[in-house]
Specification:
single chain; 117 residues; mainly beta; 4-stranded antiparallel β-sheet; 0% helix; globular
Length: 117
């Protein structure tokens, strides 16, 4: 089981960039598929991106494809989300998550990203 802690959120102007980090503690981080989700006010949580345990396969929501990049450093037990060309509609609480099967089992506490127009 891993525990997750996100960081790197903040306030940025439209067109700007942010990099989110998710530090994992616990065992066998490199056996987990890692993902990022987000939840905007009044909306359901939605999938953003995921990366397999070895980093060889990534998958993105259409809304962020070409702007966001997920990566991981297994030596540092950390997964990243580089967000470029941010838009006001990207404003949300961003959550890191981990899974080893089909279900996302572990979640972080979230980090707020606010994009001003």
């Amino acid at each position: 089981q891993v525990q997750l802690a996100e960081s790197g959120g903040g306030l940025v102007q439209a067109g700007g960039s942010l990099r989110l980090s998710c530090a994992a503690s616990g065992r066998a981080f490199n056996s987990y598929t890692m993902g990022w989700f987000r939840q905007a006010p009044g909306k359901e949580r939605e999938f953003v991106a995921q990366i397999t345990w070895g980093g060889g396969y990534t998958y993105y929501a259409d809304s962020v494809k070409g702007r966001f990049t997920i990566s991981r450093d297994n030596a540092k037990n950390t997964v990243y989300l580089q967000m470029n060309s941010l838009q006001p509609e990207d404003t949300a609480v961003y959550y890191c998550a981990a899974k080893r099967g089909s279900d996302w089992q572990t979640w972080g506490q979230g980090t707020q990203v606010t994009v001003s127009s």
